[in-house]
Amino acid sequence: MRAAVLQEIGQDKLEIFDDVEATGFGPGRVRIRVRATGLCHSDLSAMAGVLPQPAPFIPGHEGAGEVLEAGEGVTNVKAGDRVVVCWLPACGACPACKRGQTELCLAGFMNAGTPNFKRPGGDVFGFAGTGTFTEEVVVDAGCAVPIPDDVPFDIAALIGCGVTTGLGAALNTADVEAGSSVAVIGCGGVGVSAIQGARLRGAAEIVAVDPVVSRREAALRFGATRAVSPDELPDAKQSVTAGEGFDYVFEVVGRSATARTAYENTRRGGTLVVVGAGAMDDFLQLNMFELFFDEKRILPSMYGGGDVLRSYERTIALWRAGRIDLEGLITHRVPLGDINEALDQMRTGVSLRTCIEI
Fold first, then answer.
1. 289-312 per-residue burial string, b: 16 or more CB within 10 A, e: under 16
2. What confidence score (pLDDT) does residue 112 get?
3. Which of 78, 87, 287, 334 has its CA 20 to 30 A from that of 349?
């Protein structure tokens, strides 16, 4: 089968091979025919070595498709079911799951260290234990989440990561209050989803911050009340909050420099939500006095900060009701063979989400 493979960490291009085999099918496992997958910035981060991932590997973790085969003991899905790929499944038995913090379950991360593909030259890993830039993938049953028949594969793929992460950051982690002021730094697919979440919660002012003009224009369509470049953020802070700072600031870039900017633009007693996934050697510097004196809440948001399956259901309900726009997030579509075009679209910032149709 065909798949897009990164041979070595640090390479910026993927190679398309047609001799890849999905491995590991058996009891408790599911084989999925991937129909659509989104390109998430985390895929680029893994390719660059920012996020740890063994190589060679197949990127992609935001996917949807149909079940080809369900292994012995699998009860949640059967052949023919439409599913979204969940890259962070909950085991249901660990301390985090028992506390209701299923997004902190480590079971899914254990899969990332086990190859789930192979080529004639040897084993190939799947990013985050999945690897959806391919025609088929074998995953644990918990990674295959059934979706209703009326949810298109491209929409379902977005729900698998970016939309769930952004919406959840606003709805679960921040619990944005009606009438509040919000700034979102980084307005790709995840940032725009956070904007939609803040709008749902009734935020009075939502300032989108991004260096790319097309993304700022898109942010306004999705609910931002104004959109500015990073250089214009100080003026927006003065205009919207009289210089005090925003009630909520979302950092959706994953860099210490933008996290520091987010902190400085959060009002005293306000909330900074860290959504972007950054590098282990990129340190955010805060002094002990400002931590004490400003009393700002710093809340990391992992995969939307809530129960993943419930978040999927909520997102589908909001989409059906017309309360959120998911179709509009897909700005580009490419076939698997043009995957490197999709990578360039994300690197240059021209896309919110590129759908790879397989």
1. eeeeebebebbebbbbbbbbeebb
2. 74
3. 87
- HEC profile for 119-139? ECCEEEEEHHHCCCCECEEEE
Kindly state the average pLDDT of the residues 52-65.
96
Cβ pair 67, 81 in contact under 8 A: yes
Do residues 345 and 214 touch, judged by C-beta distance below 8 A?
A: no
Q: Per residue in 267-285, pLDDT tens?
A: 999 999 999 999 999 999 9
The Cα-based distances of 285 to 9, 64, 260, 289, 290 in angstroms read: 28, 39, 8, 12, 11
Neighbours of 267 (CB within 10 A): 18
Q: Give the pLDDT of residue 107.
A: 79
**Would you state the structure tokens that stand for residue 86, as one six-digit string?**
């969940």
Residue 343 has pLDDT above 80, yes or no: yes
Which tokens sit at 221? 């369509």
Least Cα distance to 327 among 194, 151, 188 occurs for 151
Residue whose pair of structure tokens reads 């579509």 in the numeric block: 333
Residue 280: how many other CB atoms lie within 10 Å: 8
**Torsion sign (Cα): 342, 34, 254, 112:** negative
d(CA 90, CA 105): 6
pLDDT digits (tens, 9 = 90+) for 2-44: 999 999 999 999 999 999 999 999 999 999 999 999 999 999 9
| Token pair for 335 | 């076939």
Instruction: State the Cα–Cα distance between residues 47 and 326, nearest whole angstrom.
Output: 26
Residue 4 one-letter amino acid: A
Q: What is the pTM of this model?
A: 0.95
Buried b (16+ CB within 10 A) or exposed e, 17-33: beebebebbeeebbbbe
Cα distance between residue 163 and residue 144, in whole Å: 17
217: nearest Cα among 187, 176, 257: 187
